[in-house]
Amino acid sequence: MLYFIWQKRGDKPLNKSQKAEDQSISYQDWQQFFQEIESKLLRWRRDLHQYPEVGWTEYRTTYWLGQELVQLGYKLSVGKEALVSKARMGVPEPEVLKQAENRALAEGVPLEWIKRMEGGHTGLVACWETGRPGPHFAFRFDIDALPIDEGKEDGHFPYQEGFRSRYRGQMHACAHDGHAAIGLGLASWIACFNKVLNGSYTLLFQPAEEGSRGAKAMVEKGWLDDVDYFVAGHIGLQPLNIGDVVATTSGFLATSKLNVFFHGKAAHAGVEPEQGKNALLAAATAALHLQAIPRHSQGATRLNVGKLVAGKGRNIIPDQAFMEIETRGETTELNRYMVREAKRIIQAAAHMYDVQLEIVEVGEGLGGESDKEWVDIVQKACRNAIYVQHVLPHLQAGGSEDATYMMRRVQERGGKATYMVFGTPLPAGHHHPCFDFDERVLMVAVETLGRCILQLT
């Protein structure tokens, strides 16, 4: 059982002695559900961890989640049924997508599923209707991985326990494997207690969160247009104790992700260098001068040049250069300031070296704030919880998240949205090759979401 595994990691099981006082679901019902779901949560998370797929290539992940959800009785929307194709951002090149599709086929994904997702139309939406009047709830669970080669160090739990990533250069280093497992856990809870629930439930398993590329495409499909209550969330973000739940998060930095292409002219560096147009120098000039953008007085602003690739050989004037950059701002307006200034400097650098320029926006996240009402909702909902130990009112994010697209759509239409954080110790930070989390957090998150539903129906 999971308790044995927890003890193996040097921790004691959480206290289960406190009884819930919910009128519709007895303490015995809660206890039995958790006893049945514990091992499944662990299996789901570890399976997903071994098969990480980066944004818009989550073919196996989408299929695997879909099979679990179909068995529970959910109505699924997959591929173009789940999102607006043209609203996707930062979609990989066709040959990259084809390689991922072939790999998924080799992993056992049926051809009919590949055809539904073909061309990077991954992710799915699962819907449940109780048939009784009540609120419309929506929950977002991101499912993509990162282009990181997972560590093999002693003490890295997935490596020690044999569920390290099987894909070289790809890893779940931001807990999205855990988020997807929580989504399946909540789906199981809704299906189990359907008879005492009201309203409707939409579970969005979102691709391409990394780089803020996927949420907008789901929002534009209309899934959030009539939602009363929306919840997204994250495992970790900063080290907290198991059983800690943060009810609201604010301070998300708006962000833009830009791919920049410099197109010059190759020439022999010794024989006729004057015939060349040096794309490398244009990119290097841009990279340096981007750092000179004045930070804004009205709030936090950020800029990072994360990648620069150029040149083919020491005796060739470089005719191509490629740069990946991102901007961030405390508000959407401040981020737009950074984008405007960044484009101005990049264009000036290209003009200086007489090279052609292409700027492609491949990701975007908005600024966002949780509705404060969720503090009271979560505190009341978890008052007699089994696994939740403390409800913390608020956390300042400091990062970016494209779930803000979903939050904003719900809030614009009169609904209430929040972004929760589920506490865990962190042996290594997010996006680190040895990132991991305490698996007990999965139970905490499922209980929190289930109890919030009961509180609001």
UniProtKB/TrEMBL annotation:
One Pfam family cited in the UniProt record for this chain: M20_dimer
Cofactor: Mn(2+)
Record-level Gene Ontology MF annotations: dipeptidase activity; metal ion binding; para-aminobenzoyl-glutamate hydrolase activity
Domain of life: Bacteria
Keyword Transferase: no
GO CC annotation terms, alphabetical: cytoplasm
PANTHER family in the record: PEPTIDASE M20, PEPTIDASE M20 DIMERISATION DOMAIN-CONTAINING PROTEIN
Protein name stated in the entry: Amidohydrolase
